[in-house]
## 1
Amino acid sequence: MLFGVFAVHSPDLCPLNNKDSKKIFLQIQNKIKTTQKKFNITKVLGFYMSVLEHEWIIILDAKNAHDVEQMCITVGISTTSTVKIVPLNDLEKVMAKLKST
């Protein structure tokens, strides 16, 4: 199942402006890789940033949102950001479902 992780932080907590946030951020990618199996994350499909919006967007293939939530806590994403986890659907699957009903 696909999930979007939308993590928003304030400018004062931005890794560009805050040395503690920078330290956490520099370790996040490696922490995700080393813990993804533990949290049933099949694959990280994308990790994007909008620097001026102070938002990270991570697209994951995972078993469930609770595991994604625990991963966000463990790797430190929730330390500096408010996190929203959103289930995502592939457009082609939605289109097929619409056509079949």
Note: The first strand starts at residue 2 and ends at 8.
## 2
Amino acid sequence: MSLDVPIAVLESASRGQIDDAEFIAVVRDSLPYAWEVVSAAVDDQTARPGAPFGEHEVPPPSEQARGQLLRALASNAIRGALERHFGVVLAFQNCHRVAAFAPAAVDSPQYREFVSPRGQVLNQSPELRDC
């Protein structure tokens, strides 16, 4: 799964002049399902003041959607741009469970539990085995 990069952005990058706003637009337009999932996790975090994180736990509706989410969260550049844009730290389990933590919560017990091997193991289920 590749990003759909407009010629103008490619030209900017070749000159060494690409900024987060340009890159975020490419990500949003190229990976709409991933954008929707991250936005939902951020919205959930914002809607629950005082909650340590917001999350999205709905399995992707298709393999294409799953690929978009994996691409966005596995790429350091894409994930970092999303985190900067939304002002969160993203955490990821399986093929669908995405959490948005406030940066100050990264040292919290909830964050440490979410990203721990224990948290990963407890989030397993047979129907998600191939995700």
Note: The longest helix spans residues 32-47.
## 3
Amino acid sequence: MRIFESIINHKINNISAEELLKYAEQFHISVTPQQAKKIATYLKGKNINIFNDRERTQLIKEIAKTAGPETAREVNKLFLELIKK
């Protein structure tokens, strides 16, 4: 795994609810504090590789359950921006 991928995955897998809210605001994604907490709790310790299509798809499905399908679509757009090569 490239160092860049490693850094991004590490950040996502260890993100706090507060950081998630900050990034959501920065990228104009609607997430409530409760949703951010649930998403951050889900991500904690999962070791998800967003560069892997299968893992990213599963994560987006879990985010949709927690924060709704529209938020999940927006988060997926953000992930796709991050993984562009």
Note: The chain has five helices and no strands.
